[in-house]
TrEMBL record:
It comes from Brevibacillus agri. GO terms for biological process: DNA integration. This is IS3 family transposase. SUPFAM superfamilies: Ribonuclease H-like. GO terms for molecular function: nucleic acid binding. It comes from the Bacteria. Involved in the transposition of the insertion sequence. Transmembrane segments: none annotated. Gene3D superfamilies: Ribonuclease H-like superfamily/Ribonuclease H. PROSITE patterns: INTEGRASE. Residues 144-303 form the Integrase catalytic domain.
């Protein structure tokens, strides 16, 4: 039985904050639930004129709903490379017909030890020799494009395989942020870039503009031959200005955070296999806030319907 002091305290607080007729049932149930660890449930039900059986029934319904949301959050987190934070999980839940606040999602993620990958500082590699070519910045930070392959950007990043640094090259379509080509290898050179072009499934002649920073790996004669052969216009960032290639930089931030971090690669074949799986997920499933929380391929499919 609750002690008299506890009962009187509950009654005092209840009278201070509520009159029996001033709150709806849901509000009363919430107040009782939130204070059940401090005061007698029976006393609070008396104060707020709520039948105890009604409270226990409504509270059990709330618990079931909480469990359902919690399991949905865990599922979404696990299905998406364990990288989504509260914003993207909220967007997925909304698509599934569940309205859940980011604060509640964050609380349930913390409860279950679900930590988004965007926290640990990343290794900063040494810079490549600069390309002093006279080629101008034709892209001019116009990162929004209306047609597929209107502009493709590229960059390289690093990943440790066993005890040696290896490198990844990506080709990204500015139209829908799709990774249209990729490669990985032990050398940071033009051959890596060439293999990324070779992996593109579409017609390279459809690429109108190719933009990169001034890294020396993008100035090899082989790359120049590719550009000329397929009549692709070239564009280079201004020296020392990473913002000119911001989309490629942002994509590699995702790669380093979502794919490289917390993984251990023992061989180049393993890296190739897992990179291929990640790119497939990135293009087909991963939602992007800049695309209205659609995946790159879904965004392109929806856009192409409007073009017809």
């Amino acid at each position: 039985m609750p002690c008299a002091t506890q009962r009187n305290s509950a009654i005092k607080n209840g009278k201070r904050y509520f009159k029996a007729s001033s709150a709806d049932l849901r509000t009363k149930i919430t107040v009782i639930r939130q204070n059940a660890h401090k005061y007698s449930v029976s006393a609070m039900c008396t104060i707020l004129q709520v039948n105890r059986s009604t409270y226990y029934y409504e509270n059990s319904q709330h618990s079931s709903s909480e469990d359902e949301v919690e399991q949905a959050i865990i599922r979404i987190f696990e299905e998406n490379q364990r990288v989504y934070g509260t914003r993207k999980i909220k967007a997925i839940l909304q698509k599934e017909g569940k309205t859940v606040s980011r604060r509640r999602i964050g609380r349930l993620m913390k409860k279950n030890g679900l930590v988004s990958a965007y926290t640990i500082a990343q290794y900063k590699p040494h810079k490549s020799p600069c390309n002093d070519s006279a080629i101008q910045n034709e892209l001019n930070r116009e990162f929004t494009k209306d047609q597929p392959l209107e502009a493709v950007v590229s960059d390289l990043t690093y990943v440790r395989v066993a005890n040696k640094w290896h490198y990844i090259c990506l080709l990204v379509d500015l139209f829908n942020r799709e990774i249209i080509g990729y490669s990985c290898g032990s050398s940071k050179d033009a051959a890596l870039v060439y293999r990324a072009f070779a992996s593109v499934k579409g017609d390279l002649r459809q690429i109108q503009l190719f933009h990169t920073d001034r890294g020396s790996e993008f100035t090899n004669r082989t790359i120049g031959d590719v550009i000329r052969t397929f009549n692709i216009k070239r564009s280079l960032s201004i020296k020392g200005c990473p913002y000119d290639n911001a989309v490629a930089e942002a994509t590699f931030k995702l790669i380093k955070t979502e794919f490289v971090k917390n993984r251990r690669f023992e061989s180049l074949p393993q890296l190739k296999q897992e990179l291929g799986a990640y790119v497939k997920w990135f293009n087909e499933t991963r939602i992007h806030s800049t695309l209205g929380y659609l995946s790159p391929l879904v965004y392109k499919q929806e856009a192409l319907k409007e073009f017809v």
